[in-house]
Amino acid sequence: MSTYTLRQENREAANVRERDMTNAIRALVMDSVQKANSGHPGMPMGMADVATVLFNRFIKLDPLHPLWPDRDRFVLSAGHGSMLQYALHYLIGYPDMPIEELQRFRQLGAKTAGHPEYGHAQGIELTTGPLGQGIATAVGMALAERMLAVRFGEDIVDHHTYVIAGDGCLQEGISHEAIDLAGHLKLSKLIVFWDNNSISIDGPTSLSTSLDQLARFRAAGFYVQDIDGHDHEAIAQAIAQAKLSKQPSLISCRTLIGKGAPNLQGTEKTHGAPLGEAEIAAARQAMGWAHAPFHVPEDILEAWREVARRGADERRQWCVKTAASPFGDELRQAVKKEIPETVFKDLRAFRRLHLEKATKVATRKASEMVLGIINNATDLTIGGSADLTHSNLTITPGMKHISANDFSGRYIHYGIREHGMAAAMNGLALHGGFVPYGGTFLAFADYARGAIRLSALMGQQVIYVMTHDSIGLGEDGPTHQPIEHLAMLRATPGLNVFRPADIIETAECWELALRHKDRPSVIVLSRQNLSMLRQADSTENRSSRGAYVLREPAEPRALTLLASGSEVEIACTAADMLWGQYQIPAAVVSMPSWELFEMQTLAYRRSVLAAAPRIAIEAAARLGWDRWIGEKGAFIGMQGFGASAPASDLYRHFGITPESIVATTRKLIS
Amino acid sequence: MSTYTLRQENREAANVRERDMTNAIRALVMDSVQKANSGHPGMPMGMADVATVLFNRFIKLDPLHPLWPDRDRFVLSAGHGSMLQYALHYLIGYPDMPIEELQRFRQLGAKTAGHPEYGHAQGIELTTGPLGQGIATAVGMALAERMLAVRFGEDIVDHHTYVIAGDGCLQEGISHEAIDLAGHLKLSKLIVFWDNNSISIDGPTSLSTSLDQLARFRAAGFYVQDIDGHDHEAIAQAIAQAKLSKQPSLISCRTLIGKGAPNLQGTEKTHGAPLGEAEIAAARQAMGWAHAPFHVPEDILEAWREVARRGADERRQWCVKTAASPFGDELRQAVKKEIPETVFKDLRAFRRLHLEKATKVATRKASEMVLGIINNATDLTIGGSADLTHSNLTITPGMKHISANDFSGRYIHYGIREHGMAAAMNGLALHGGFVPYGGTFLAFADYARGAIRLSALMGQQVIYVMTHDSIGLGEDGPTHQPIEHLAMLRATPGLNVFRPADIIETAECWELALRHKDRPSVIVLSRQNLSMLRQADSTENRSSRGAYVLREPAEPRALTLLASGSEVEIACTAADMLWGQYQIPAAVVSMPSWELFEMQTLAYRRSVLAAAPRIAIEAAARLGWDRWIGEKGAFIGMQGFGASAPASDLYRHFGITPESIVATTRKLIS
User: For the Transketolase-like pyrimidine-binding domain, which residue ranges apply (chains A, B) (predicted)?
Assistant: First the structure.
């Protein structure tokens, strides 16, 4: 605001300078896309005015301290417009974004990837590109800000989350989930700019939508403004108003896509392809930009660098306030997201206790018990569920839920919004200060796929609690019974998939999910009760090796049974029957995590799998299991979709029983 | 309407009777859920009044002819309330829904599955349960009705699509995509009842939403009414008004969840569990329903059967009109969805031509050429894309797009709405009359997962055209480059996944997708150009066997290279190098469809795979490939996410090259 007011004192000169600053963006965008011969100039050129005003007059960030906790978060939800962000980063002076990086736009190893990639360059707060993810992730960021502010004080936590969203972002379903949640929680520091250019890839948006977007956002509880997205004063006033609002804001910015390209602007031709040398020359002339490609005159660059200087001042003031705050150290600590060692100590004690008691519970129930311990021992965890709290068992005693009037709680009712939940959790994790976990049924991982993939791609510690993990859920039937979901998740790079077999493994898997700070975990849990299977007392976390021999027969193995989750108990029963009835010595291997098993040495993996024939048992699709059973092995699981019936009937119906394992064994080793 | 007016003549008696009819539903619901000891009584009891009025006074269907093309479509989007549908089916007299089926609710093999399952019982128009799918699929049904009406006349195509949706359906993101599209296309015969009971599983909906739902639907172009959902006259008037509207309708029905259960109604306790014997007894008393469990007195049953008689009359009248219509036969033919044999003849000619010409094109381009032939030879196909028309190449010459003012076209601009598109295609397929296909990028299969799974579960012929199928898309980077998606789709039961290697296989795979009437197909296509690889002239569709030996070396095989899509060409080059440089005779096997290969005889599969060591090459995740390469084989593909760079750089960077295959071979067979 101060900067905004300051500019008014010498409006004429400031306007001229700001116009030049905007042209610098447009020129850099045209040049970079042209050199790459690939990319999207339309959005960055259309939104160059908005971005200039936002960065020049409002935004709070310090390129030399890109992780400063109280920086504003800038989210380019329309990620195909990545050149807008790269141009801004060069102009305000992020040290890792010299002009050479813009010249290497979209080339191997460049920081200037086709879409903004979290971790590639400083100041990129999240990966975007799949439309709608940015706005939905931003909801989590804005929520994190409010929660940290309540914990540590508004004097040291007070920043905004700015989003640039396109028509695509707002057509995607995830945007509905996101804005409904943001409006409900009155996340007033979330400010969304809609690049309202009426153009999508296929042509005018009128080909596919007639929605009254402003009315839609108002219905969701947003403060809505509608402006000319090329009028700098209108933009500045709208941002100032939005910052005053008690609701989240939508600023509809009516823009011309590709603004500045005299012959192509306003058409889908500027959306996703270089403008061509001739049009770029014409644009230079029309803008009055006589400078060479990739060249920004020193005075204009100097004007842009003022943004960084303002940010640095603000950061210095914040450091002073933080030093004075009783919560300064705690904030710095929270942002590191270090799970205290007491959590792990308590979890080991939990394991010892239940090993002795041989506690038989559903693993979803075991997870609830484990969460009770974790949530007691650390404040970092933030729970939630997509309206299945008492099925996922994700709430623990004393957890207060968050509402628009009270952000001091630790539990989020995400609503029936799996995708929005997953994206919001990404935002909570990216913002810093929290380790989010959230529940739904495993089958509804489908709905959250887009955001789960981004958790993995961004390497964020988000923990998915996915219960009702097989036909074991029973009567709800095939729509609710996961079949292909384990394969889908296991095939996803950078994602831990845990399917614990009993209460002990559940505690171990939770511990591993907490230890793996650089990746998301999915903990897949049963609805039905499962016996405690672990025999030896051990402080070792056996799940940490991904797979291990749970039962080794007295005689040399004639067979190895591989299983995960609820099917490990069935394998154990089968092993007993094989020995009792036929004196066939069978080992049972529990495989709670394929990913971790893959990371073990070849020697360890061989010792676990061994040379004897193998049968895998899992109430899911076969895909992937052949890696472990080999060509001579067998698989007992699901061949198609499930059915609606009590769980025990279904296991019999689909032949996932000890008897069936015994019969298959007899065929296999005869 | 006629029936609605008729009732007015003797309103008093009619009201009493209709009240009894409603109580019959409530009693059957309570009894069935109690007997199953599982299920959701709350929604059916809350919406029993709406359902009674809709069925008693309006709906047009004939239980003895459940596939009558001009029937109204009834969509229970809130599928957990399945007992509402089963009670209705029993009451109006579907022959396959005797009282015994209600008594077997949620038991193995019963028609009364936990959620309505398409194909299990007559009159179930679609599978529901995953929330939001029903309303989104209904949009496709209502669209199909409009399109058929334009083709064959309003005199013989004139029916409504009625949807019951819950809070969950409307919170899910897919609902946004659906209502935006429905409003845009002014699908005025789509009438959505919102079970506005303010209760979700976790408790009051105010825990997670503050949305003004009515304003939201108005923004999307719906005609919106808000009524007391227990007031029969208000319900009837609202339906009558909705039928007059030129827009799609939302009728907000304010209801009490579990209405009729005196101590529990209005609370989440009635949502998902039996009410208990005591509460059921109290409800019977409060309703004045003195009848035994599962018993409906003859006069009330008789009143319900009147619905069927009215429907039978309407069907008879329709038969007369259809016989008189010049388009009657065509409609009957269209509904069968028989692709004419000329399509397949033309496709064979296409293959012969391009075999001779050795046409080198991207398989997405080949698909466009194939579609040109298909769309020329049949009117059944309806194309579309989620705003990537000119990337997916899904439109062919002369295809007019559909708009609110003109339903005579064959191309749908679905907007940036992958999930909504997939669900709408399910609706088009389920309705009958069309074979829909629709395009997006393969990576965005993620967004459509929920509906793709239902295509498979329902066995619907929906064809997904998914282009940009690997790192071969280049600069757009890891968010756009599929890795785990092939595994995710291949693991899905009942889904054909085709990844053709060249123009010939593309034509073959399209042919197979058209031949497989009972299942969806995903055709996965490259952005980059691919050489024509097929050597021998052959009218045989070699892709029909799923995998086949494309190149057999002159000498006995020392190695088999397995690949799909764009990597088959790389494998061929490697085979040439292996022979030229090291005299290693390597066969190349193209595997366009794992599912079809699985269906071949063991002898055929063995002849293709052979005994020599195998290397699989696919620019995707390894998961699943071990089934084909065996324990001694190798895999060359992606180990993690992709990157942003030109495609050729990426193939080199990730080591998916002929050179890398040669190096791996030398290690493998040394």
Answer: 361-532
Q: Using the beta-carbon criterion (under 8 Å), do A184 and B416 form an inter-chain contact?
A: no
Token readout for A549 is 């021999």
In chain B, what percentage of residues exceed pLDDT 70?
99
Same domain, B409 and B479: yes
pLDDT score for A4: 56
Closest CA to A591 of A621, A613, A611, A571: A571
What pLDDT shows up at residue B11? 80
Model confidence pLDDT, tens digit, residues B222-243: 999 999 999 999 999 999 999 9
**Cβ–Cβ below 8 Å for A202 and B413:** yes
Indicate the residue among B292, B321, B350 that finishes a domain. B321
Nearest to B114 among A387, A401, A477 (CB): A477
pLDDT mean over B400-428: 98
Binary contact (A487, B38; C-beta < 8 A): no
Mean pLDDT score of chain A: 96
Domain that holds residue B653: 544-668
Kindly state whether residue A327 falls inside one of the protein's structural domains.
no
**Res. B324: pLDDT tops 70:** yes
Within 8 A of A130 by CB-CB distance, chain B residues are 443-444, 446-447, 479-480
A114:B167 CB<8 A: no
Q: Report whether pLDDT(A6) > 60.
A: no
Q: How many Å apart are CA A324 and CA A471, to the nearest integer?
A: 57
Whether B512 and B568 map to the same domain: the answer is no
Q: How far apart are CA A219 and CA B215, in angstroms?
A: 6
DSSP code at position B58 = I
d(CA A260, CA A45): 7
Q: Which of A106, A183, A456 sits opposite B475 (nearest CB)?
A: A106
pLDDT, residue A9, reads 57
Examine residue B330 and state whether it is found in any structural domain, yes or no: no
Catalytic choice (B177, B418, B569, B595): B418
Token pair, residue B51, equals 């359902």
Cβ separation A484–B475 shorter than 8 A: no
CATH number of the domain at A552, please.
3.40.50.920
- Which among A125, A368, A418, A511 is annotated as catalytic? A418
ipTM for the complex shown: 0.97
Nearest C-alpha in A relative to B626:
A627
Query: Among B38, B200, B621, whose Cβ lies nearest the Cβ of A416?
Result: B200
Domain match, B479 and B346 both: yes
Same domain, B29 and B175: yes
Residue B583, CA atoms < 13 Å, CB-side half-sphere: 0
- Looking at residue B203, what is its pLDDT? 94
Compute the nearest-CA separation of A339 from chain B (Å).
Answer: 27
Which residue does chain A place closest to B183, by CA atoms?
A: A210
Residue type, A101: E
Q: What angle do CA B285, B287, B292 make, to 5 degrees?
A: 60
Answer yes or no: do A550 and A524 share one domain.
Answer: no
- Tokens read off for B455: 């295509």
**Min CA distance, A341 vs chain B (Å)?**
31
Is the residue at B535 inside a domain? no
Q: How far apart are CA B617 and CA B572, in angstroms?
A: 11
Closest residue in A to B452 (Cα–Cα) = A446
Region B604-618 average pLDDT = 98
Contacts of A478 in chain B (CB under 8 A): 113, 117, 127, 457
Active-site residue, B569 included: no
**Same structural domain for residues B262 and B195?**
yes
What CATH number has the domain bearing residue B432? 3.40.50.970
Same domain, A450 and A598: no
The whole-angstrom separation of Cα A116 and Cα A79 is 6
Asked whether the CA dihedral A80, A85, A90, A96 is positive or negative, the reply is negative
pLDDT exceeds cutoff 70 at B7: no
